[in-house]
Amino acid sequence: MKEVTLVPTSHIAAQSLKAVKKAIEESKPECIAVELDMNRYYAMKTEETATNREMLRSFGAMNFMIFWLMKSIQGYLGGKVGIMPGAEMVKAVDLASEYRIKVAFIDRNIALTFQRMSDIPKKEKLKMFWFLIKGSLGLLFSKIYKGKYSFDLTKTPPKELVNEAMSMLREELPTMYKVLVSERDAHMARRIRELLTEFDNMVVVIGAGHYDGIRKRLK
């Protein structure tokens, strides 16, 4: 009987750090998989990143601006709660080392994801850029949950809020959603299936926005 425990997280929530540790200690997995590729993990551990000029040249102006805004917003929110974005992924890898558990990096190479962004229509990129600008002002969140949910940065967002946000992204920016979410869901689900030929019990740490897509593909 194969067992996969999916742990949906928020990349800046203290609650997610606790959820990762609890899942690993309770499941005692043979393998811990994380939503990172090796390059992103190395960059997070060493804090070595490409310069803005290098990224601008590699990604193109619009892709770079989207990436920079997303990173800036996440970094700002992480600073508010004192947690480095992606800390729960690093925590999972550190626990794997501490408990001598195999670790797997299952996300698609970030360079390939940015390469795929060249297929996103300019209209969608401009719309995404505007959403991010509104998000940085706190307007996007109010549009999504309209006061129905409390929003605590220290906790993983409620499933209803995540689903509503992902639904909005899918409807408003279908190609962006395909490149950033559904293609990566498919890639990670495929990697998990490959790992299950070797391991019987796995804990998989993923962002909450990927939870439903990966779960459905595995089922």
Q: Describe it for me?
A:
The chain has 219 residues and is an alpha/beta fold. 64% of the residues lie in helices and 10% in strands. It has a 4-stranded parallel beta sheet. The longest helix is centred in the last third of the chain and has 22 residues, at 174-195. The protein is globular and about 45 Å long. It starts with a strand and ends with a helix.
The shape, in one word, is globular
Number of strands: 4
SS strand fraction = 5-15%
Radius of gyration: 17 Å
- Measured between the Cα atoms of the first and last residue, the distance is 14 Å
* Average predicted local confidence, pLDDT: 83
Q: Return residue spans where pLDDT drops below 50 for at least 5 consecutive residues.
A: none
Q: What is the total domain count? A: 1
Largest sheet: 4 strands, parallel
Count of helical regions = 11
The class by helix and strand makeup works out as alpha/beta
**Helical content band:** 55-70%
Strand order of the largest sheet: 1-4-2-3
- The SSE string, one letter per element, is EHEHHHHEHHHHHEH
